[in-house]
Design a protein that fits this description.
With 335 residues, this protein is α/β, with parallel strands linked by helices. The protein contains 14 helices and eleven strands.
């Protein structure tokens, strides 16, 4: 479950710089490495803040990180043992041929680091390295569906779940194959920065605005689900572009040619929130951006984001953020 912060905490988060360490055990699947880094970089650019610093390290002495496809090669910033100071999150990336890597020093280091970082994650078969380090014992975890049975058989103390695209258990996150690493990184951005920035990143990368961890990797009804996901994706984009308009449940249901009951069920399943709550969140986040980045008056912002008036927007801010819209702006300006 994504933690909910007070408005003071949210603003503090956007002002903080989070140090993310990506530990590569080469050769790696190239997209497993590049995808999450691209998401974090896009979050920095679109928020106009240096929210993340990303350092790529490896266990190899020569610091070379080869791609498994043989087409790309990277140079790590350093060896993991040379890391100094604290860091917020650690992400493990490896490849099919290195998922069973035997490096006692590396595994011991991961065991020491696991309780100290806010988040420890893996992409695809990187879960095998976490498993070998013993940090997944007694926890729920996932990996690429092709290797979930092997993971469960090799490490019986792990509660392997093969369907979700990513799983969180405590401070440990595991994700399924390839593109699921991008979904995991988006989830981290959403935790840190809120849905608005995560949505902007997803739109820039031409992704679904939100693909929850509970989304199945495979399904017998995959075609139907994919169609419904596409409809919800298009609707999310339309909502973001039409916040000043009336966005009632009947209007949204008609937009995707569904009955009200079916639309509410599908929307809530795919996005994890009701349509009404989603629209309210989008309006609040759009209003926040205007309060932060413009000198528009409260009535003007309320009208531009779909609130019927500044007083309605004030009450919505107070109810969900703990501060009025004017109070939020004062806090931003004073920060």
């Amino acid at each position: 479950m994504v933690r909910k912060f007070s408005i003071t905490r949210e603003q503090t988060i956007l002002q903080m710089q989070r140090r993310i360490i990506v530990l590569a055990v080469p050769p790696v699947e190239e997209l497993d490495l590049v995808g999450p880094i691209q998401v974090l970089g896009a979050a920095n650019r679109l928020s106009r803040k240096s929210i993340y610093t990303v350092e790529i390290v490896t266990h190899r002495k020569d610091l070379e990180i080869k791609g498994e496809g043989g087409l790309l090669s990277f140079q790590a910033a350093g060896h993991y043992r040379s890391l100094k100071g604290n860091f917020d999150s650690l992400l493990i990336v490896c490849g099919l041929s290195t998922r069973h890597a035997r490096d006692p020093a590396l595994l011991a280091w991961i065991r020491r680091i696991a309780p100290r970082v806010r988040r420890l994650g893996s992409v695809c078969v990187g879960a095998f390295i976490l498993a070998k380090a013993g940090v997944l014992n007694g926890r729920r975890a996932t990996a690429h569906w092709k290797f979930s049975e092997e993971l469960a058989r090799s490490y019986p103390l792990i509660k392997v779940v093969s369907e979700p695209i990513w799983v969180r258990d405590g401070n440990i996150y595991t994700s399924a194959g390839i593109s699921a690493g991008i979904d995991l990184a988006l989830a981290w951005v959403e935790e840190d920065c809120g849905n608005a920035i995560a949505g902007e990143v997803a739109r820039e990368l031409v992704l679904f605005l939100r693909r929850s961890g509970g989304q199945a990797q495979l399904s017998v009804s995959l075609s139907a689900q994919a169609n419904e996901m596409k409809l919800m994706q298009e609707l999310q984009t339309w909502i973001a572009e039409n916040l000043p308009k009336q966005l009632t449940l009947p209007i949204l249901a008609r937009r995707v040619a569904m009955s009200r009951r079916n639309f509410e069920r599908v929307f809530t399943r795919e996005l994890g929130v009701s349509p009404g709550r989603y629209v309210l969140n989008m309006r609040l986040e759009a209003a926040q951006r205007m309060l932060e980045r413009t000198r528009m008056g409260l009535e003007e912002i309320a009208s531009a984001t779909g609130f019927s008036g500044a007083d309605v927007m004030r009450r919505a801010f107070l109810r969900t953020r703990g501060k009025t819209a004017a109070g939020y702006r004062r806090q931003v300006l004073s920060g």
